[in-house]
């Protein structure tokens, strides 16, 4: 297994990432194709990345999407948006390899923290995070759609 940054767009990769994101979705709903421009923007960005875990056959078995957030209070932190391993392969160290790659990525970018959310009903994910030293931070997460 290897973990590396996504460096190219192709339809096969996009479809596999989409399949993993459907597994991550609470509803299991497919939100449709991910636009090629999204991948292109991500690949060329210095402040955003997708770490991809590959098996020995070069098949994608897990992903983590990260961004750098900056502010006068938080300074510079890494924010984890999407983190999923193939549900048929969980418990085989893929998540741990991605986790370590995320910490290395954040440190290399000069970030002091890795922040993320984990919703209610995600007990296995939360146990994973806590086992690796992540602490629950008391906050409310808000979302506003911009029309």
Can you give a write-up of this model?
By secondary structure, the chain is α+β, with helices and mostly antiparallel strands. It has one domain (2-131): 3-Layer(aba) Sandwich (Aminopeptidase). Helix content is 32%, strand content 24%. It has helices at residues 11-24, 36-44, 94-108, 123-131, and strands at residues 2-5, 48-54, 60-71, 75-85, 114-115. Strand 4 (75-85), helix 3 and strand 5 (114-115) form a beta-alpha-beta unit. The radius of gyration is 15 Å and the shape is globular. The relative contact order is 0.15.
What keyword list fits this structure?
147 residues; alpha+beta; Aminopeptidase
What is the strand and helix layout of this fold?
Elements: E1 2-5, H1 11-24, H2 36-44, E2 48-54, E3 60-71, E4 75-85, H3 94-108, E5 114-115, H4 123-131
Parallel strand pairs: 4-5
Antiparallel strand pairs: 1-2, 2-3, 3-4
Count of all domains: 1
β-strand number: 5
Structural class: alpha+beta
Biggest sheet: strands side by side, in what order? 1-2-3-4-5
How large is the share of residues in beta strands? 15-25%
Number of helices: 4
Identify the CATH homologous superfamily.
Answer: Gcn5-related N-acetyltransferase (GNAT)
Q: Provide the gyration radius in Å.
A: 15 Å
In a nutshell, what does this entry contain?
The chain has 147 residues and is an alpha+beta fold.
């Amino acid at each position: 297994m290897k973990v590396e940054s996504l460096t190219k767009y192709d339809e096969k990769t996009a479809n596999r990432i989409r399949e993993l994101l459907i597994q991550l979705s609470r509803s299991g709903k497919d939100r449709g194709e991910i636009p090629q421009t999204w991948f292109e923007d991500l690949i060329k960005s210095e402040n955003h990345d997708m770490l991809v875990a590959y098996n020995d056959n070069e098949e994608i078995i897990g992903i983590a999407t990260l961004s750098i957030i900056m502010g006068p209070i938080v300074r510079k932190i890494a924010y984890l948006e999407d983190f999923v391993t193939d549900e048929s392969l969980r418990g085989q160290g893929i998540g741990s390899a991605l986790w370590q790659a995320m910490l290395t990525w954040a440190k290399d970018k000069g970030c002091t923290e890795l922040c993320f959310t984990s919703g209610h009903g995600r007990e296995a994910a939360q146990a994973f995070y806590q086992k690796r030293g992540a602490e629950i931070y008391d906050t409310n997460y808000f979302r506003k759609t911009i029309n």
